[in-house]
Design brief:
Elements lengths: L4 E5 L3 H20 L5 E5 L6 H8 L8 E5 L1 E3 L9 H8 L9 E2 L12 H11 L6 E4 L17 H4 L8 E6 L2 E8 L1 H4 L5 E6 L1 H11 L7 H5 L6 E6 L1
Parallel strand pairs: 1-10, 2-3, 2-6, 3-5, 6-9, 9-10
Antiparallel strand pairs: 4-8, 7-8
Helix pairs in contact: 1-2
Length: 232
Amino acid sequence: MRTRVTFEACADRQAASRAAAELLAGRLRDDLGHGGHASLVVSGGTTPADCFDLLSATALDWARVTIVPSDERWVPADDPGSNEGLIRRRLLRDAAAAARLLPLYRPGVEPAAAPAAVERDLQALAGPFSAVLLGMGADGHFASLFPDYAGLPRALDPAAGARCTLVRTAASPLLRISLTLAALLHAAQVVLLFFGADKRAVFERALAGDGAYPVQALLTQSAVPVTALWAP
């Protein structure tokens, strides 16, 4: 059975970002209300920045929230291309400054050893992620799961054991580390936030099973609900 993907076309990108922030905050609030901890996976890039700004001002018990990047370039947090740096600047501030960040890039750790270290930290989180916020590229990639990544079939296998993988691909000149689809589906809710006519066309083709876009595996799985928020 195909997942029921909920699609919402928003008037503009600010409205889509606000809808995403409200949905994510609601999921976090639900988990925190049960007296435990909550966790949120977030993507990098330019798309989620406004959502981060809105979410950072939301009143929650952020000290009981763990933030996990969906993927990362193998660069330190002060590098302009670092997703961790973006998350620290735009999300982990104001009310959300008390949240804990579980980084993917590990200074002083050889890249080949990093996936195992990240997986150990992920296993220490109690329960599934409260929610996952993802973006999508015009080539249909999400996280750092690019179409030309040689390990893509395994990384998109929801039954695969590995929850973190190193990504070397011509689409990215830098080595990357990424959560796999199996890791991202260990969640109560996935929110896909994307903008522009070209990405909407990719989304519609992938949802229909037309093509070989990585995001098709996310949209056609049956385990976790996906809310897709789009604006021109």
